[in-house]
Amino acid sequence: MTEYRLSTPVSKEDIKTLRAGDTLYLSGTMITARDEAHHRALEFAARGEAIPVEFRGKAVYHCGPLVRKEDGRWSVVSAGPTTSTRLELFEDRFIEEFQPRVVVGKGGMGPRTTQAMEKFGCVYGSFTGGAGALAAKSIKNVADVLWLDLGVPEALWVLDIEGFGPLSVTIDSHGRNLYLEVSEQVRRRKEAILERLS
Amino acid sequence: MDPSELREVVLDTTVNLLRLAETELPADAVEAIRKALTKESSDVAKAQLDAISRNLEIAGEGKIPMCQDTGTIIFYADVGSDFPLLSDLREILTEGTKRATEEVPLRPNAVNPFTGENSGDNTGNMIPYVNIDIGKGDTLRLSVLPKGGGSENTCSLKMLKPGEGIAGVKKAVIETVVEAGAKPCPPIILGVGVGGGADISLKLAKKALLRPIDNRHPDPQVAALESELLTLTNELGVGAMGLGGDTTVLGVNVEYAHRHPASLPVGIAIQCWAARRATAEISLDGEVTYLTHTAPEGAEQ
Predict the structure, then answer these.
(1) Which alpha helices (H) appear in B63-155, and where do they start and end?
(2) pLDDT tens-digit profile of B127-165?
(3) Which chain B residue shows the shortest CA-CA distance from A83?
């Protein structure tokens, strides 16, 4: 396991050095996007229309933050990840269209996303589910918020981050997916335990 | 104490319990996470457990919720029939929930299932959910269990055939933990309710989450099942955040009710590592004793 510190925009070459099991701390720009934002962004792309924010080389975060507005300025109180598996529907096309280099979430993603990450040079970084207070600590500023009409959790929150992590690289850009490996191992162990019980 | 003064004490205690539960884990849960971190052999799992520990420190110091999903608010009120305010209790707990939503703050998590509208203050039809148990005496023992959505989505109910026996119960628990995988944010705590009926087993399972995980059930047979389930589920290797590792389950609490001859229901409640709960006891004269946490500054003692 190697520890990496990278800043956005991240190059394809840098992403290729990361291997499943490595730890990443990320600085620069990370943009939240959940189901609704993914859906709308892909609709824009289908119409050939530009979306109002640039994802290229940056990180997309599966997160609906707990935010606070004081004196007209937004701040993030707590911002842990949401379950990424719901985004499996969109993520391969999203990566192809918008070229983010890092996808951050929890719970892992499936084979379609894994293939897109290998093809276009992207990794999935698992942030600890529920660790919203830790996440908020490395979010230094809310640079912008777009598509607020989707509701606070579903909007695009453009966040300035510093040393955001630890992100466990669990899908790398070489086709390895730790979640699929772990679930296969768990399945085998379960069968052994159930056999012992009967 | 004057009933209107006592009402204020119950209201303040409700807000305090919510703040304590959301920002600080009880000692048994903290200790279980610390132990898991110490003995973990996988580097990836270790990084996740370390992040959980640091997150708890930041939340405790800053008095901010440890997780952005501050849960559905559930209360358990064990109240003596000589305690006043019995008929006002739901109203007070609802008011306390609204106040805590603003003051802590909590994420508004009460959504009308038909219109999709979020009430904005964590209250709505039946919510906060209040379990009231009236017994003898003149005290109120009030617990709060804010329950996150990710772990709630992985709870299960199995209606076993009595012939499947306790081995069937073990299988049901193992299958539920495997099915849940990374989704409930492991390491998790399991509440298991055996017997009673479909609803009763799930109620027992959820209430079991209020018991500290370092306490075993007083019935030695049930205690043995708790220990065996803890060992078996940790052999699965799901690990912290489902990334593989030595600790999948921090604790297992089992409760039971006598069953119908034809049924063997098993309710399985899954709690994420952010095992938020807090309990206090309020006496007739407004004295408050916090049982899971250190009393907050300025609180009535």
Answers:
(1) 89-103, 149-152
(2) 999 999 999 999 999 999 999 998 999 999 999 999 999
(3) B183
HSE on the CB side for B194, CA within 13 Å? Answer: 21
Neighbours of A15 (CB within 10 A): 22
The answer to whether the peptide bond before residue B65 is cis (omega within 30 degrees of 0) is no
Examine residue B113 and say whether the peptide bond preceding it is cis (omega within 30 degrees of 0). no
Give the minimum alpha-carbon distance from A34 to chain B in angstroms, rounded to a whole number. 15
Over B265-298, what HEC string results? EEEEEEECCCCCCEEEEECCCCCEEECCCCCCCC
Helix ranges restricted to H, chain B:
3-23, 27-39, 43-62, 89-103, 149-152, 165-180, 198-208, 220-235
ipTM above threshold 0.95:
no
Spell out, as residue ranges, where chain A has pLDDT lower than 70.
none
Residues on chain B touching A189 (C-beta within 8 angstroms): 235-237
Take residue A87 and report the two structure tokens written for it: 């985004």
Distance (Å, rounded) from C-alpha B233 to C-alpha B247? 9
Is residue A143 within 8 Å of A121, Cβ to Cβ?
no
Which of these is catalytic: A38, A39, A62, A174?
A: A38
Q: Half-sphere exposure of residue B231, counting CA atoms within 13 Å on the CB side?
A: 7
Per DSSP, the residues of A44-74 read HHHTTPPPSS--TTSEEE----EEEEETTEE
Considering CB atoms only, which of A21, A128, A198 is closest to B241? A128
- Per-residue pLDDT at A27: 98
**How far is B38 from B51, CA to CA, in rounded Å?**
13
Residue B182 to residue A133, Cβ atoms within 8 A: no
- Which residues from chain B sit within 8 angstroms of residue A21, using beta carbons? 43-44
* Cβ contact B293:B26 at 8 Å: yes
Distance CA B176, CA B109 (A): 25
Residue A174 among the catalytic residues: no
Task: Return the closest-CA partner of residue B214 out of B29, B24, B40, B37.
Answer: B29
Identity of the residue in B52, B150, B170 whose CB atom sits nearest the CB atom of A83: B150
List, for residues B222-243, the tens digit of each pLDDT value: 999 999 999 999 999 999 999 9
The mean predicted confidence, pLDDT, of chain B is: 96
* Beta-carbon pairs below 8 A across chains A and B: 142
Among B48, B58, B242, the residue with its CB nearest the CB of A179 is B242
Q: What are the DSSP calls for B64-86, one per residue?
A: --SSS---B-EEEEEEETTSTTG
Give the pLDDT of residue B301: 52
CB-CB contact of B3 with B88 (8 Å): no
